[in-house]
Amino acid sequence: VQVIALSDGTIPVDTKLLHAAPERIDRLLAASRAVPPLAASVNAFLIVAGDRLVLVDTGAGKAMGPGLGKLTASLAGAGYAPGQITDVLLTHIHGDHSAGLTIDGKAVFPKAVVHVNRQEAEFWLNPANKDKALSRHQMMFAQAKTSLAPYIDTGRVQPFDGHAEIVPGITTQPSPGHTPGHSFY
User: Fold this and answer.
1) Closest CA to 181 of 103, 112, 99, 126
2) Do 97 and 90 meet the contact criterion of CB atoms below 8 Å apart?
């Protein structure tokens, strides 16, 4: 197989999001000659495996500001078009990994089947979980619904459980913690 790293762009990250004492963060930033806000890269990976073009994550699309949403341009730079993607593997359903599935409510990858851990999908698509979430997290549930809707509506979401072979030679590795159904491939 061939694996191609694709950039969706960068997003500024405030150091308040880091889980460490402010003085430690300041010391480490100074040692690295870095100045906040930091530019965090959002990436996806294209796996060329025989007749399958498998995209791992889809970036943020238009959902998280002007520094992102460059995945389709990166894909074109690698010589591929969104309509060629056969499969999308989501590591998890946070917006910087899944919002690039749609633009203006339409599927960006019109032929792709989206593979996602069943527990992950059930968590983010369940309105009861949104109602129980902190107010600052509720928009994540709305984004998940928006991102997956055209794929769900056309029967192109395939949930998986635990360890599974998604496409020939690519298997899942459950890695919950960051999200309920987070997965590695």
Assistant:
1) 126
2) yes
Helix (H, G, I), strand (E, B) or coil at 108: coil
Q: Are 170 and 183 in contact (CB under 8 A)?
A: no
Per residue in 34-73, pLDDT (tens digit) is 888 888 899 999 999 999 999 999 999 998 889 999 999 9
Q: What is the C-alpha to C-alpha distance for residues 165 and 158, in angstroms, rounded to an integer?
A: 12
pTM of the model: 0.91
Distance CA 44, CA 55 (A): 7
Closest of 98, 82, 182, 90 to residue 142, by C-alpha: 98
| CA–CA–CA angle 159, 91, 16 (5° rounding) | 135
Task: Work out the number of other CB atoms within 10 angstroms of the CB of residue 12.
Answer: 11
Q: Which residues contact 116 (CB under 8 A, 6 or more apart)?
A: 89, 90, 93, 148, 157, 158, 159, 160, 181, 183
The Cβ-side half-sphere exposure at 39, using a 13 Å CA radius, reads 9
